[in-house]
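Feature request disguised as a bug report, sorry. It would help if multi-protein outputs had a clear separator. Right now it looks like this:
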Amino acid sequence: MFYCPTTARLFVAIAFFVQFDQFAIAQTSGADTTDYINHWFIEPSARSGYVFPTNSFLRGSNLEGESIGSYNSISIKAGVQTLDDRPWVLHFAHPTIGFGVNVVQFNESDELGTPIALFGFLNGPFKRWRRVSLDYEIALGFAFNWKPFDPVNNPDNVSIGAKESAYVDLGVQASFAVTDRLYANAGFNVTHYSNGALRKPNQGVNMIAPEIGLRYDLYKDGPVSPSTGHRSVFHPSTDLDIAVFGGSQNVIYDSLNVELIEKYEGVNYLAVGIQATVSRHFAFKSKLGVGFSADYNGAHDAQVSVANGEVETVRSPFHEKLQLSIYPSYEFVINKTSILVQPSFYVARTNASGQTPVFYQRLGIRQTIRPWLFVGMNLRAYQLHVSEFLEWNIGYRFHR
C-alpha cells in the first residue's frame, strides 16, 4: 500500500522549512541577530465556525444521522516581528513569522476525530497605522489525530481517508494595540484539510470561522510603525524553469468482488513527467508566465482484473498513458519561497471512458535552494476540489 505516515508528514516538513528559510540570519542584509532574539511574541486565539457540507458524510450520512456543520478550535502561536532591512522584509512591510498549534472539536467527532495541526505562518499588513493594522495571514502545516475512513469500522467517513492530512489556513484580521505589548485581534479564516489523495476516499474538510485572539509581545519597543525603510530598486527578469516530477495516484474500484480491505486499499499507479515554464518576474512579489507539461499517468484508462481474491492491473501500451498539457502560471513570491497557481488544459491524450475533465488545476509550493535549483510539491486536482495526486518535483532555472 502506497500511503504511509512518513509521506504525509512531508507536508509539515515543507511548511517548517519555508519558515526556517525566512529566519536564516545568513541571508540578512544589515540585520542583527538581536532582532530575532528580542522580538518574539505569543498569541492564543479561538474560533467557532461553520463546516461546509461538501459531501454526504458531512451532510448527515453517518452513524448519528446528523450533519457535521460546526466546530470550535483554539490555537497558540509563537513568532517574531521582523524589523530588519532585508529586501523581502521591506516589500512585505515587516511581517511576522513563526509556528503554531491548532486543535479542533467538531460538533460530532466520534467518526471524524479531533484533529491537531502543527503549522508555520506568515502574517503581513494590507495597511498599518500607528496602533491599528489590517492584516492577512497564510498558514501551512500538518494535521493528525483524525479518525479516518475504514471499510469495516468507519465506512461513512468519505472526508478523510488517512490519520494525517495537510493543513491550509488563510485569514484576514484587524489588530489593535491595547498597550505597548498587548494586541487584540479579530478576523475571519478559511481552513482546508486534505491528504492530497495519498489515500482515498479524500473529499476533504473545508471550514470558515470568525477568530478572536490576543498577542503579547515579549519585548518593550511598542507597536510597529508604518515602514519607512528604503526599498531596493526592483529589476524585472525572465526565467525558464525546467522541472521533473513524480508521484502516485490511488484509484479505488468500488465494483470489484473482493474483500473490503483489499478493495479500499485501491491500486496505486505511477505518474511522472516534465514541465517547462517561461515566466516574467514583473514585480517583487509576482511572476506571470506560460508553460507546458508532458507526463505519463498509469491511472489513465487503467484496467484491472481479480485473481484469487486479489486485484491485479492489466498492462496496456505505454503511449496510451501519455498526456500533454498547457497552462498559464502565476507565482506569489515570498523571499525564496513561491506559491504557484497553474490552471491547466489537456491538449493531447487518448480518449477513455470516465476520464477526468480537460480543465484541471495545479496548486503548489516551491523552495529555491540555489539561484538555479528549486524543489517543490504540487497538488493536481479537477473541478476545483477533487484531488488527483501530488507531484514532487525538482528543477533547474535559467535566469535572464
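(second protein starts here, but nothing in the output says so)
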Amino acid sequence: MKSALAQTYDKEMEIIISDDCSNDGTFEVVRRIAADYKGTKTIVLNRNEKNMGIAGNVNKCFELARGEWLVMSGGDDISKPERVATLMCAVEKDAKLRAICSEVDFIDEDGAVLKDRRQTKRNQRNRNYYFNRYFNEATFAQIIRVYDLNYFGLLLGAASAWHRDVFHKWGALPSDLAWEDVVLSCRARMLGKVVFLPVPLLFYRKYWKARAVSKKDPEKCKLNYARNARFLDVCADEIGGGDRRAAKNLRKTARLFRSLANWEKISFGDKIKTIFYYGRHHWRKLFVASIPFKLKMIYAALTDKISRKKRIEIS
C-alpha cells in the first residue's frame, strides 16, 4: 500500500484497496495508513463481507473504479515509484491499447531480489517481440498454440494495467476463476492492442517454499489442473465464433487438464490418450524424457487397471 501511495504520477489518481475478508488484522492496518495519509491521491477502502476469491475481488475493484485504466497490484508485491507514470505515458501514445504489462523483478519471501532466466537480454528481446508484434498480429489459434507450448504465456496480471472496456464489454469475470489475467489478456486482444514494456516496474514476490510443497501434494496438483481447465473454457466461450479454431484448441486443452484432474476416475483408454496427447502437446519439454515418461505413465495406468480388476474378482 505504501508503494501505491508513493507513486510519482502527477495527474488525478485513485487508489482502491480491496480486502477480501482477511482475518489477520490487515484491514485495520490499511485503515490506519489511509488515515495518516496527507497526499493528494484519493483512497477508496473496501472490505468484502465474505471471501470472493481473486476473480470476485477483481470484479469489485472494477466496479469501484472511476478511471479509464486500472493498474493492478497484489497485496504482497511492491510497485516502483515510477510505475503508474511509465504505464500511462505509454498508454497516451496509442489510443488502441487495451492492456499494458511491464517486466518485473522477482523477490523472495524476505524481499531479496532473485535472479530469473526471464531477465536475460535474449529472453527480454523474445518477450518484447512476442507481445508487441506477434501477439497483436497473430490469429488466436496461433497465440493459443504458443501459450499451450509454454513458450511465454499471456500477460502477468499483477504487472498489468487494463482498460475498463475489458470488464464492461463482457461483464464480470466468473467468480470461481482462479487466474484472471489469462481471460483479461484474451479480452484485451479482441478489443484492441496489447503492449509489453521490457522495463521492470514491479517487485513480484515468489514463494518458493510453498510452491515446492504444493508441487508434491497430489490434491493441490489436481486442483490446479481443474483451475486450468476452467479458465481455458471461459476463454473459449468468450472467443466464441471470433476464432473457432482457437476456441476448439482451448477446449481440447481444457479436456486434457480435466483428465489430469480426474485421473483416478477416467477410463484406461482415456488415460492412454491423455498420456500420448500430453507428450505430443509439450513435445519440447518432454523431447528427451518423453519415452521413459510415457512408459512410466502407461505402467501406472496398467497397474491401476490390473489392481482394479483383482479387486472386482475378489469382491
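Even a blank line would do. Unrelated, but nice: The chain has 13 helices and seven strands.
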